[in-house]
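so im writing up the methods section and need the Carboxymuconolactone decarboxylase record in one place, dumping it here so i stop losing it
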Amino acid sequence: MAISDTARRNHQELFPGHVSTLARTDPELIEYFDNFAFDEVLRHGSLDAPTRLMAQLAAMIACQAVSEYRVMLWAALTAGVTPVQVKEIVYQAVPYVGMAKVFDFLHATNEVLTEQGVELPLPGQSTTTPGTRAERGLAVQKQIVGASAVEQMYAAAPADEQHIQRYLSANCFGDHYTRGGLDVPTRELLTLAMLVSLGGCDAQVKGHVAANLNVGNDRGRLIEVLTQLLPYIGYPRTLNALRALDEVAPAQHTPEQDTPEQED
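--- predicted struct ---
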């Protein structure tokens, strides 16, 4: 087997002049991985390169793949993902993956950006204050999740858990989803990429499939994102995500899918 011309070209566009050491030590693996990830998978759908790479970076944070994250971060910047967008991916991961896991990725991001000559800190993207974060967060939470669903979450929570619901509105949504740098539909795609890649978040994956649909990311777009995550997160988590998608947004049956009956 040899690496296809298409895979070589796509790889070169993302990693100009870079030759992987694994191509020398593990040539067979790299041949079929590159043919899969940089040719076959890229032929599916029409997801633009920056969105694809942002979703992959989000997934790598959730997977704790810091070495691969560094490599793909260079590729993302080469493909046109901006430093502000990169930082917002990392910040968006904090409420979903947790600061304990995001910490090393924040430092890795700063190191790569500094190596690229980017001056830190970047311009601030916060749009709320301590006085407005709760109200703004609740509003955007209702926009994304649905007002009735949010009200039901508050109503169902016992009195001694109400503070967690308030944190969810003010912190997760108020501190993060209201930020600039990325729009809400993109943030929802990134959140889904993280939850899928974390594993063990089946209920949350289903909830954010529905949330993505609410903000305009349709079934086709979600399948495109999951397809581009597959080489990096593996089949089990991808198939689990597809099951959640099928439960929330089943494929529409079309007449073309019917099997013609055989005539006697």
